Amino acid sequence: MSYNLMDRNFNLRFFGLRPQNDSQQQKCHSEGNEESNNLRVKNEVGFKIVNLQSSIFNSSGFTLLELLISMTIGLVVLGSIFSSFTTQKKSYELQEKITVMEQNLRVPIDFITRDLRNVGYNPTENLITGTSVGLVPGGGINIGTNSIRILSDLNGDGDTGDTGEDVDYSLDGTDYTDGITFDIDRNGQPLVQNITALTFTYYDSDGNTIATPITGDNLSIIRLVAVSITARTSDEDMTFTTGANIRGTTDDGTCRTRTLTARIRARNIGLQQTY
C-alpha cells in the first residue's frame, strides 16, 4: 500500500495534529492579533508611566540662592510700601495739626476784631467821664500789651451790663490744656488753646505808638489797635528746625508756630476829632 506524502490529512495524522479548517485559522490569527495589540498597549502605558516618573524626578526646584534673592526683593518691596505709608501718615497728621493751629489764630482775631469795632457803640452820657468810651482800665484787666477790656452798648438800653457788652481778652498762662501753652480768655472762659503770645499795640491819629499800660489820660487818643497772636501746634515735632525769628515770641524749637496780625480801627472812639 502506497501513501501520498503530499496528502494533507496523512501529514497531519502523522504528526498527531488535527486538521483545521479556514474559520479556525482565522480565529487563531485574530487571537494572535489581539495578544499583539494588548502587548503594544501595555508597552505604551508602561512607557508613559516611566516618562512621567522620569519627569517628576528630573524636574528642578528653587535653589537656596534663588529663595534668598526672592525673599530679599520681597522685603525691599514691603519696606518701600511701609515707608511710603508712614510718610503719608505723618504728613497727614502734620497738616491736620497745622490746620487746627491756624484755626486757633483766626477765631480770636475774628472775635477781637468784631469787638474792637464795636468799642463805644451807642454810648450813654454816664459812660463819658473824661475817658474814652469803650476802652476802660480797671476791673482786674489792664489795657496793656497782653490784655484789653472792651465796653459797648449793643442793645442800646443805656448800660453795658448785658451779656457780651463788657468783654475782656487776656493771655492766661495758668490754665494749661494737656500740659501745653496758654489760653486766650474771653470773660473768664477759654476761647482758644495753644497760644504762646498775645500782643496789643495802640496808635493815635498820627500813627504814633501809645505807651502801655493805657491810663485814663491817653485813652481818648487811641484810634487804632494792632493785635498780634502767635499759636503753636499741640504736639512737639523733634524733627522740626526753627527758622529765624522775625517778630513775636521766640520759637521753642520743637513746635511749629504761626503769627497773625490784624490792625483794627476803633470807629466809635473820638468821633469829634478828625482822622
Q: Could you outline the blueprint of secondary structure elements for this entry?
A:
Blueprint: H1 8-14, H2 22-58, H3 64-117, E1 147-151, E2 166-172, E3 182-186, E4 189-203, E5 209-210, E6 224-232, E7 257-265
Antiparallel strand pairs: 1-2, 2-3, 3-4, 4-5, 4-6, 6-7
Describe this entry's structure for a reader.
The protein is of the alpha+beta class. Helix content is 36%, strand content 19%. The chain has three helices and seven strands, in the order H-H-H-E-E-E-E-E-E-E. The protein is rod-shaped, with a radius of gyration of 52 Å.
> Number of DSSP strands?
7
Q: pLDDT under 50 segments (min length 5)?
A: 1-20, 124-134, 136-141, 175-183, 271-275
Q: What's the alpha carbon Rg, rounded to whole Å?
A: 52 Å
Quaternary form? single chain
- What is the first-to-last residue Cα distance? 173 Å
Roughly how much helix do the residues carry, as a percent range? 25-40%
What sort of overall outline do the alpha carbons produce when their principal axes are compared?
A: rod-shaped
Q: In DSSP terms, counting alpha (H) and pi (I) runs of 4 or more, how many helices?
A: 3
What composes the largest sheet?
Answer: 7 strands, antiparallel
Average of the residue pLDDT scores:
68
Secondary structure class reads: alpha+beta
Order of helices and strands: HHHEEEEEEE
Provide the β-strand percentage band: 15-25%
Descriptors for this entry?
19% strand
